[in-house]
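Provenance and format

Records in this collection were gathered into a single text stream. Each protein contributes a sequence line and a token line. The two records reproduced below are adjacent in the stream.
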Amino acid sequence: MRLSEETEEVATFYAKMLDHDYTTKEVFNNNFFKDWRKVQASSVHFYHHF
């Protein structure tokens, strides 16, 4: 999967959080992935221009 710099940064943040208690919480995961999808959607628009 090709990621924009911003999308990769957000994914890296989540990966670093895996050892934290937050990632066991459903609300945190739902909120994170909802926000990440927004970042992905904006980067998809970016890649369609190439």
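Adjacent record:
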Amino acid sequence: MPWFFVSFWRMISRFLEKGTLEKIVIVNDDEERKCFVKEIGEEVLPEELGGRATLVALQDVTVPPLEG
């Protein structure tokens, strides 16, 4: 993990509540990544993070008109 991230995290984490800190997990090895993918699900994770979901740029999204 880059040194600047560790320094930044130490500085920012002091301002977060304990309950919020307990919800944050920083994945930094293969075993944690496998657990993360299993918990979240491959179908919703983007391919860049080891999943199967394809990301679509916001400007490329088409929304069907509302009926009624």
